[in-house]
Every structure is written in C-alpha cells, then in structure tokens.
Write the structure tokens for this entry.
Amino acid sequence: MDIQAAVLEAPQGQLQLQTLQLEPPRDREILVRVMATGVCHTDMSVMGRPFPVNQPIVLGHEGAGVVEAIGAAVTKVKPGDRVVMSYNFCGACPSCLRKAPSYCNYFFGNNFLGQRADGSTALSRQGQPVRHNFFGQSSFATHCLCTENNVVKVPSSVPDALFELLGPLGCGLQTGAGAVINVLQPAFGESLVVFGAGAVGMAGLMAARAMGAATVIAVDRVPQRLDLAMQLGATHTLLADGQTDVVGQIREITGGGANCTLDTTAVSAVLRQAVDCLAPLGRCGFVGGAPVGTTLEIDVRDMMLNGKTLRGIVEGDANADVLIPQLIAMQAQGLFPFEKLMKVYPFEAINQAMADAKSGHTVKPILRMPTQTA
Ligand SMILES: NC(=O)c1ccc[n+]([C@@H]2O[C@H](COP(=O)([O-])OP(=O)(O)OC[C@H]3O[C@@H](n4cnc5c(N)ncnc54)[C@H](O)[C@@H]3O)[C@@H](O)[C@H]2O)c1
Ligand SMILES: [Zn+2]
Ligand SMILES: [Zn+2]
C-alpha cells in the first residue's frame, strides 16, 4: 500500500514527507494506521549521529493509532483496536525471559537497525528499500508495522481527544516515570532531583510527587521549563546557568543531600553533579543518550563511603503493557498530567516541531497525521 512518511535521507538533514510503499503484515506483524506520534529527543539524536542509524530511514517511536490489519499468528489485538506502540524486544533472550525486556540482548537489532530480524525491509520507494522498524514501528508515517511485543491496547474509557496524546507513553513518559517508579523508588517524604526538565525529566518529577516525595527539585538551562516544572509539582527549581552552585544548593534545600536523582541531560558534568549531590545511600539513575564513547569520572571513595548507587536505565525498566495503563489511570485522576507537556502540530510541520523541541519552546511535540478521523 502507499503511505506518507517523513524520510531522513542523510545525517543531519531535514525530514522530507514522501509517498512510500509498505508491505502487508507478515504472520506476526500488525498494521497500524497512525493517528498521532510524539517526537522524542532520541529521534533527534539519531539524526545528529550520537547513535548512528543507516539512511534512508523513517524514524518515530511514540505512535498511537488504530489496528488496521493483523498477521495470521496475531491474537493480542484485532482490527479496530486503539493502541500505543512502545520499544521492541525479542521475547526469548535471557533478559526477556527474566522479564527485563528493555535490556533485551537484541535491543539494538530490534530497535535501531532499520530492518526486520531476517534482514528484509517492508518499506520501499520505487522498488528500493527504505529503512523502517525504528523501535519496532517507524511511526513518522501514516501507517506502520509493529508486533505483539511492542503494542499496548488502550482502555476503551480513554476519550478520542486524549488518545492522540498517548504515543509518548510508549517512550519518553514511560522512561521518566518508570525510572522513578521502578528503579529509584523515592519513599514517602524523600527527595528527588531531575536534571533536565524535558519530557523524561518532567515525567519523573510528576511520578515522584504522585509517590509522595516531599521535595522535588528540577534543574534546567531553560527558565520556561522550570516554570512548567513548578506547575507540575516541583517544589524547587535551579537554573543551570553556570553561575549557580547546583550541588551546594541541592544539599542546602534537602538538608544534606538528595535521596534520588535522575539525569536526563546526557552531559557527563551534569551526571557527576547528580552523583555528588546525593545523600548517604542515595540513588542516581541516568537515561540520557550520550554519544558513543562518552565517559564519566567518579569519586570512588565518596561512592563507597556513602553507599551511593549509580544506575543506567532503559525505558524506565518498564513493561509497557503494565505501566502504560497505570499512567493513563493516574492521568485521569490529575496525578500525572502529561497533557501539559504537549503541543499538537500537523504532520507536515515535523521539522518545525523538532526545532521547537530543540530550542526548548515545546517540551513534547505531537504530530497529528493527515488521515486522522476523530
Ligand atoms: N534511556 C532511555 O530509555 C531513553 C528513553 C527516552 C529518551 N532518552 C534520552 O533521554 C534524554 C532526555 O530526553 P527528553 O525527551 O526529555 O529530552 P529533552 O531535550 O526534552 O530534555 C532534556 C533537557 O535537558 C536540559 N539540559 C541539557 N543540557 C543541560 C545542562 N547542561 N544542564 C541542565 N539541563 C540541561 C535541556 O534544556 C532539556 O530541557 C535524551 O538524551 C533522550 O535521548 C532515553
Ligand atoms: Zn530479548
Ligand atoms: Zn524515545
């Protein structure tokens, strides 16, 4: 079938909307008519090459849509179901069998390689292959293929107007919320600091407040993002302007150090602050997609004597089938108001949406597909 998709032709290029051809779903694949998709910082990172992917490729990995067709072996969803797509995994390696699919031994191949596991591509342009299967979806398109592993059914109680905002639950929001809920686990009355008040950091801070953290501090370079962080429940903000003594201020606000910190900036110097400002037995998680080869210098003695933990986290350690419905339920109660992060753009404005995310103007752009019928 013919579809419309945003194609990255070369690194650092602009995305171009083109007509491509998509194969029908194979036995284990699901064809989704994308209604809307979020833009994640990771889409922009791969364009800038910190994690290289081959081109031409269709990116996009926060899709929400309606199942249009299913392969013969698919039982989890049926045509007409509303779904959110998340990251992909193999389901059979040691990590997947341990119920830790975001650490799938084949995570790279399933999410970044731009082709199916057997090397074929379902997407083409005048007979020439175009890479797809980005995070098992490539949702910067009117239609895409996914699998049972990375599709989550949306509860029927969700109104259509909210449905188009759900795609980022599949990556950015589940990453920040899951990092806090599943890994850092601030206890009632404890403190948490997010470094980087973007979509991931904001999701982390909302989750921390919902869990009863008493002190939640947001650190960012963009003052407007700090204002929004306060509206979302931060108790304090710190502007990372190079003048502020961030570590000293956090120690002062928390009375000796933070219990939990979450770094989303992918900047080593900031990650170091996130470790340095911890209280004894403090936990630091980091999720930022740093360029290949990035290293971090750590004060080993401080880590040991204070019993500090430093943990990399992929997709919030989340099982999307479990966490996404929970986040939807929390949003319905006003405890996880992710809609406040979002601005909807028409699909054609994809390059503008990315520019606005980069400048800090929009926290989470949502691209509405032209085929959408509400
Ligand atoms: N590990 C995972 O599973 C996973 C999942 C999703 C996103 N990510 C990554 O997480 C990171 C955050 O994603 P996002 O969508 O929230 O991005 P974002 O761009 O919306 O947020 C990053 C924030 O960090 C701030 N920042 C940058 N440098 C800073 C500095 N030196 N000091 C203070 N603040 C600084 C920016 O102003 C911005 O607000 C990205 O690197 C993304 O690739 C990882
Ligand atoms: Zn696996
Ligand atoms: Zn992402």
Summary: Residues 2-170+337-368 form a domain with the Quinone Oxidoreductase; Chain A, domain 1 fold (CATH 3.90.180.10). The first strand starts at residue 2 and ends at 8. The two ends are 23 Å apart (CA to CA). The mean pLDDT is 96.
